[in-house]
Write a structure and sequence with these properties.
Layout lengths: L1 H21 L2 H4 L1 H14 L3 E4 L5 H8 L4 E5 L2 H10 L4 E4 L12 E7 L10 H11 E12 L4 E7 L3 E8 L3 H10 L2 E9 L7 E8 L2
Parallel strand pairs: 1-2, 1-4, 2-3, 4-5
Antiparallel strand pairs: 5-9, 6-7, 8-9
């Protein structure tokens, strides 16, 4: 899949700049920090950060006592994550073909990583999330709210990129999460008056 290769190459290219950009993400976004803290309190077992990037959020979950590991499409990102957090587990992998055993984790975090998955591949990705989660396991998805797709050709220090960013309405994502075998428990809208708002969805794997 061309979009998958483009996404991998793009994030390999910007890995170091992206890590610097994300360094103060939690201190700058208290709502996101609160969401991750709630996720950590509720997850009740091992959790995987899918699309973990340089591992900032994985490490934060671990600091709260979660047995957290990370998976990312970009080998460059995984190299940085392993260097910064050698005590944690990080692996190269794709959320569209998640290489984890069935019912092996109690939590799945997908923080602004599903935004790169085309609409037609979202159901397959959510099915993988449901497959690897234990019954009653917790899913947290962060995403950009809107409509349509934007092609990002430059970012994070001015480096060239070629990634598609898919904006979605809460109802659109919630409908597909439910269809994948989840119960939606909460939806948070963040910075609703900004040009591109963000949202967080919490869902529980059906028993």
């Amino acid at each position: 899949m061309t979009w998958l290769a483009d996404t991998r190459t793009s994030y390999d290219t910007v890995a170091s700049s992206y890590a610097e950009f994300m360094a103060d993400a939690l201190s700058a976004q208290p709502q996101l920090k609160a969401a991750l803290t709630l996720f950590a309190a509720e997850v009740g077992g091992p959790a995987v950060d899918v699309g973990c990037g340089p591992g900032h959020f994985t490490a934060y979950l671990a600091s709260l006592g979660v047995d957290a590991s990370g998976i990312d499409l970009s080998p460059g990102m995984i190299d940085l994550a392993r260097q910064a957090h050698p005590e944690l587990r990080f692996e190269v992998g794709s959320m569209t073909d998640l290489a984890l055993p069935d019912a092996s984790v109690a939590g799945v975090l997908a923080s602004w990583s599903l935004i790169h998955i085309p609409d037609e591949s979202v159901p397959v990705t959510l099915a993988h999330f449901r497959r690897v989660l234990r019954p009653d396991g917790l899913l947290m998805i962060g995403y950009h709210v809107g409509a349509g797709t934007r092609l990002k050709t430059e970012g994070y220090g001015g480096h060239p990129m070629r990634v598609h960013i898919h904006l979605r309405q809460p109802w659109w994502l919630a409908r597909r999460v439910r269809a994948a075998g989840f119960t939606v428990e909460a939806e948070w809208l963040i910075r609703p008056e900004s040009e591109v708002p963000s949202a967080i969805l919490f869902a529980r794997a059906s028993a």
